[in-house]
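Is this the right way to post structure tokens for a design question? Let me know if I should format differently. Anyway, here goes:
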């Protein structure tokens, strides 16, 4: 049986080299920012998502990173409630908003740091203050049934 790290690598390897590199560098930066969070990895047909959560539940996550064919995004839970004076947040979902990332250095931008801090403050479950989070593979595209559109 593959290790979680090997499984995650196989998910990421489906994407082009440039976006793989960006995703890996963003993951390292977010992991450094949230060392006690669990990384919940989801593999979908069109993306790979890692949610940073105090538990094994993605809904309790603070942020997540998503690898798509068109690039890498940083999603913020409770995005609609976050103060966003610079109008950086994109999307219209009920629970999340995102920003497109061009490099891991984007996470060092003061406005992005403020969004990350705001998402942390709004988290429904606090991250542990000590310890080290673990990588948990939550789903694989091969196991998922295709969505049926409601009529």
């Amino acid at each position: 049986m593959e290790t979680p790290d090997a499984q995650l690598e196989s998910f990421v390897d489906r994407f082009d080299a440039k976006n793989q590199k960006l995703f890996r560098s963003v993951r390292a930066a977010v992991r450094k920012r949230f060392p006690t969070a669990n990384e919940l990895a989801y593999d979908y047909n069109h993306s790979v998502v890692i949610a940073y959560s105090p538990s094994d539940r993605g809904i309790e996550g603070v942020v997540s990173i998503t690898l798509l064919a068109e690039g890498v995004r940083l999603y913020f839970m409770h995005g609609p409630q976050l103060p966003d004076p610079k109008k950086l947040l994109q999307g219209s979902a009920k629970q999340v908003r995102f920003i497109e990332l061009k490099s891991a250095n984007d996470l060092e931008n003061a406005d992005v740091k403020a969004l990350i801090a705001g998402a942390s403050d709004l988290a429904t479950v606090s991250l542990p203050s000590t310890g080290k989070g673990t990588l948990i593979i939550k789903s694989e595209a091969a196991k998922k049934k295709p969505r049926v559109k409601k009529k």
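Format looks fine. Someone answered above. Worth noting: Residues 4-138 form a domain with the Aspartate Aminotransferase, domain 1 fold (CATH 3.90.1150). Strands lie at 38-43, 47-53, 63-68, 71-77, 96-101, 135-139.
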